[in-house]
Amino acid sequence: MPIDEKDFIKLNYTGKVKSTGDVFDTTYEEVADEAGIKNENKDYKPMVLAVGSSQLIPKLHEEIKNLEVGDKATVEIPAEDAFGKRDPSLIQLIPMKEFKKQGIKPFVGMPISAQGTPGIVRTIDGGRVRVDFNHELAGKDIEYELEIVETIEDDAEKIRGLLEVYYGNPNLDLEKTEIIIDGEVAKIILDKLAGFEQRTVQEVTLSKFRVSREIYENMEEIKKVQFIDEFEEPEPEEEDVDTEEVPEKLADDE
Amino acid sequence: MPIDEKDFIKLNYTGKVKSTGDVFDTTYEEVADEAGIKNENKDYKPMVLAVGSSQLIPKLHEEIKNLEVGDKATVEIPAEDAFGKRDPSLIQLIPMKEFKKQGIKPFVGMPISAQGTPGIVRTIDGGRVRVDFNHELAGKDIEYELEIVETIEDDAEKIRGLLEVYYGNPNLDLEKTEIIIDGEVAKIILDKLAGFEQRTVQEVTLSKFRVSREIYENMEEIKKVQFIDEFEEPEPEEEDVDTEEVPEKLADDE
């Protein structure tokens, strides 16, 4: 049965630079290992994808719709649809004395970071250092090898998959995340650990927005997504704990 | 009618150091102004308080229970029940050279901060600087002048008051915060702006916990509090916006 526009699938993929065959991303642990890009913190397994996602590169979208569960395929993506063309304005000449000030001795190929943007030293010419702030895959045609593993039927499982891809907290225990579909509303009660992360609220709101957009764009029946933090009254204890509490001032309103 | 254990009240207060009469906190704008502690960002108005709150100093609790709406009273709080006794181990001798390293020239009375803890320079003796990290009100008996303004009957208004005191985001628009009491569950759908603050999730979780504790400890019928972030599918637009979207790579899982 071919993949449908409205399906959620699990797929494996390997992304390569077309000209060199260099692997830059993969869901297969052994491929990552072989390519020397294995991340010990990453859980290598098939990724959940909404086939109709507006975030998907159109060519990938078209290709996947022609496949069936179990199929493999290779899709070529030109640079402009992948990581973008190279932007000459992102190559900057920086005076050598700026590096000296910070006690850095630049060399060709040295990775550096300017206000969080990664760059790489391309050339050193007398007093000037040419630094390239383009994405390292910018300007490169890439290809993805795809393998459709299965389709997902269960709504809660679809949402767990989207949380895994878009929520951005690898410590989240999705088994402890309760998902309730209540008519047009998807209610997500996250694992309690989600409340203790160090990202700012604004960063997490962006993640929640991305998960929500994938849900209401790709799950026809859902119009609203709620992320719920729950705080429950603890069961009363035997002993009277009141007397052990240290009173605060009138009201700590900071 | 006297104030009851289970009441929520609005009260005005002024906190003073007993020995000097120095005002350190107040809900009256003109008192703050006169004392030179007026904060332009603070909204001076009566504060909401759960009379039965376990966070309240017991002596304040007892005193408030003897009052009625409209009453005024002054309550003395000994240092150990207010900001604590002075702790000699919080007075530290720091070599002058540590200050010099950071280009700081200390003077007696200078406020400093070490890893976020505020302190004050007490003495400078040759190469040693004595810095006091005790709270500036530690060791001081204080007194609160209280005025009971009214009691609050409406559950949503009680919760809005607790959010104002304990949530810790002064930019929150409480008029835009929806509060639904659903049996034993209080549902709080915060103003959308709450999603854009720069505190970490962990800090805000602590604030949510404090609000929740005040709710389920002091509102008998509530056993569970939910903080809900909602994301709704936007109404479809006339034009087809799909073609204007810039596709991302296969899946941006960062």
Automatic annotation (TrEMBL), chains A, B:
Domain of life: Archaea
Pfam families according to UniProt: FKBP26_C, FKBP26_IF, FKBP_C
Gene3D superfamilies: 2.40.10.330, 3.10.50.40, 3.30.70.2210
Gene Ontology molecular-function annotations: peptidyl-prolyl cis-trans isomerase activity
InterPro entries: FKBP26_C (IPR040825), FKBP26_IF (IPR054016), PPIase_dom_sf (IPR046357), PPIase_FKBP_dom (IPR001179), SlpA/SlyD-like_ins_sf (IPR048261)
PROSITE patterns per UniProt: FKBP_PPIASE
Region described as Disordered: spans on this chain: 229-254
Annotated PPIase FKBP-type domain residues: 6-95
Reactions this protein catalyses: [protein]-peptidylproline (omega=180) = [protein]-peptidylproline (omega=0)
Keyword Isomerase attached: yes
EC number: 5.2.1.8
Compositionally biased tracts (Acidic residues): 229-245
Top EC group: isomerase
UniProt keyword terms in alphabetical order: Isomerase, Rotamase
Family membership: Belongs to the FKBP-type PPIase family.
Name used for this protein in its record: Peptidyl-prolyl cis-trans isomerase
Organism: Methanosphaera cuniculi
Species classification: Archaea, Methanobacteriati, Methanobacteriota, Methanomada group, Methanobacteria
